[in-house]
Amino acid sequence: MTTHRIIAASSLRPGLATIVVALPDRTIRSSALMVQPQPHGVVQVAFASGDVITLMARAAVGYIESPGPSSPRRRAS
Questions:
Q1: Which residue in 61, 18, 24, 63 sits closest to 43, CA to CA?
Q2: What is the residue-level pLDDT of the chain in tens, covering all 77 positions?
Q3: Where are the beta strands (DSSP E) in 1-77?
Q4: What fold, for 3-65?
Q5: CA 7: distance to chain centroid?
Q6: CA–CA distance from 48 to each of 1, 7, 29, 52, 72 (Å)?
Q7: Domain spans of the chain, in order of start
Q8: % of the chain at pLDDT higher than 90
Protein backbone atom coordinates (compact mmCIF):
# COMPACT_ATOMS: atom_id res chain seq x y z
CA MET A 1 0.00 0.00 0.00
CA THR A 2 1.32 3.43 -0.93
CA THR A 3 1.43 6.01 1.87
CA HIS A 4 0.75 9.69 1.09
CA ARG A 5 1.42 12.34 3.72
CA ILE A 6 2.04 16.04 4.06
CA ILE A 7 5.03 16.72 6.31
CA ALA A 8 7.13 19.70 7.36
CA ALA A 9 10.41 20.19 5.49
CA SER A 10 12.22 19.84 8.83
CA SER A 11 10.97 16.21 8.99
CA LEU A 12 12.53 15.22 5.65
CA ARG A 13 15.11 12.45 5.61
CA PRO A 14 17.12 11.14 2.64
CA GLY A 15 15.67 7.97 1.20
CA LEU A 16 13.62 6.28 -1.47
CA ALA A 17 10.33 8.06 -0.80
CA THR A 18 9.21 10.52 -3.47
CA ILE A 19 9.04 14.11 -2.24
CA VAL A 20 6.67 16.50 -4.03
CA VAL A 21 7.38 20.25 -3.88
CA ALA A 22 5.14 22.67 -5.77
CA LEU A 23 7.03 25.78 -6.86
CA PRO A 24 5.52 28.79 -8.67
CA ASP A 25 6.95 27.75 -12.06
CA ARG A 26 7.20 23.94 -11.75
CA THR A 27 6.80 20.92 -9.49
CA ILE A 28 9.66 18.73 -8.24
CA ARG A 29 8.86 15.00 -7.82
CA SER A 30 12.02 13.20 -6.75
CA SER A 31 13.70 11.45 -3.82
CA ALA A 32 15.88 13.42 -1.44
CA LEU A 33 19.57 12.55 -1.52
CA MET A 34 20.67 15.10 1.08
CA VAL A 35 18.72 17.02 3.72
CA GLN A 36 20.70 19.59 5.68
CA PRO A 37 19.17 21.85 8.34
CA GLN A 38 20.64 25.36 8.21
CA PRO A 39 20.59 28.21 10.73
CA HIS A 40 17.58 30.55 10.88
CA GLY A 41 14.93 27.87 10.33
CA VAL A 42 15.67 26.68 6.81
CA VAL A 43 16.42 23.26 5.30
CA GLN A 44 18.53 22.69 2.20
CA VAL A 45 17.45 19.68 0.13
CA ALA A 46 19.34 18.03 -2.76
CA PHE A 47 17.15 15.81 -4.95
CA ALA A 48 18.04 12.87 -7.19
CA SER A 49 16.70 14.97 -10.09
CA GLY A 50 19.64 17.36 -9.61
CA ASP A 51 17.57 20.13 -8.04
CA VAL A 52 18.87 21.77 -4.86
CA ILE A 53 16.43 24.01 -3.02
CA THR A 54 16.20 25.76 0.33
CA LEU A 55 12.88 25.55 2.17
CA MET A 56 11.58 27.11 5.34
CA ALA A 57 11.68 24.40 8.03
CA ARG A 58 7.88 24.62 8.44
CA ALA A 59 7.11 24.47 4.70
CA ALA A 60 4.72 21.67 3.79
CA VAL A 61 5.87 19.04 1.28
CA GLY A 62 4.17 15.94 -0.08
CA TYR A 63 5.68 12.59 0.89
CA ILE A 64 4.86 9.44 -1.09
CA GLU A 65 6.23 6.16 0.22
CA SER A 66 5.75 2.94 -1.72
CA PRO A 67 6.33 -0.42 -0.06
CA GLY A 68 9.64 -1.95 -1.07
CA PRO A 69 10.54 -5.62 -1.29
CA SER A 70 11.62 -5.67 2.36
CA SER A 71 8.53 -3.86 3.67
CA PRO A 72 6.11 -5.94 5.70
CA ARG A 73 2.83 -6.64 3.93
CA ARG A 74 -0.48 -7.04 5.65
CA ARG A 75 -2.20 -10.36 5.20
CA ALA A 76 -5.91 -10.51 4.49
CA SER A 77 -7.82 -12.11 7.34
A1: 61
A2: 788 899 999 998 998 889 999 999 999 999 999 999 998 999 999 999 999 999 999 999 998 887 766 545 444 54
A3: 3-8, 18-22, 27-30, 32-38, 42-47, 52-56, 60-65
A4: SH3 type barrels. (2.30.30)
A5: 8
A6: 23, 19, 9, 9, 26
A7: 3-65
A8: 58
